Amino acid sequence: MRGTIPIFARHAQRGGEKGAVPCGRTLPRESPVHEVSIVQALIEHVEQEVRQAGHTGRVVRLDLAIGRLSGASPDAIRFAYELLAPGTLVAAAELRIEEPLAVACCRGCGGRTPIEELVDRCPACGSPEITIEEGRDLLLRSIELEDEGPSQNDE
Ligand SMILES: [Zn+2]
């Protein structure tokens, strides 16, 4: 089962607008509660997808992409996952997490610069005409399911 399912997607924001990013402001630290609700939504999504596909095998792997600027902590996501996965369809699934960088796309020079932190100017030419793409979303990239075999070793 392939495809990209947004768990939560923040709309791409335009950088460089006056007042859009106050000076010296850092991204707020998210509380663990935030990650717990993300993981709850994630597991619900997976169960829904698997049910819709009419699959009865177990989920063996989930691939997540947690953007560097998404505000979600991969460690906290893992922690919440270990807390919430038991007793669900994903109880035996391995969680793989990628952390894609955001990209500053510049209308001034046409450059696409990978960034680790929110910027309000193009790192290449200094133009404020930039758009931040990617790196802000938390995506479920794929769900890998166990093959449905005729015999299963249930414990
Ligand atoms: Zn530029």
Write the layout of secondary structure elements.
Elements: E1 2-8, H1 32-52, E2 59-66, H2 74-84, E3 94-98, E4 102-106, E5 112-115, E6 130-133, E7 138-145
Parallel strand pairs: 2-3
Antiparallel strand pairs: 1-7, 2-7, 4-5, 4-6
Helix pairs in contact: 1-2
This protein binds zinc ion (ZN).
Zinc ion is lined by residues 106, 108-109, 111, 122, 124-125, 127.
Can you characterise this structure?
The protein has 155 residues and is an alpha+beta fold. The chain has one domain: hypothetical protein PF0899 fold (2-Layer Sandwich). Helices cover 21% and strands 26% of the residues. The chain has helices at 32-52, 74-84, and strands at residues 2-8, 59-66, 94-98, 102-106, 112-115, 130-133, 138-145. The protein is elongated and about 55 Å long. The model is unreliable at 8-28 (pLDDT under 50). It binds zinc ion (ZN). Zinc ion binds at residues 106, 108-109, 111, 122, 124-125, 127.
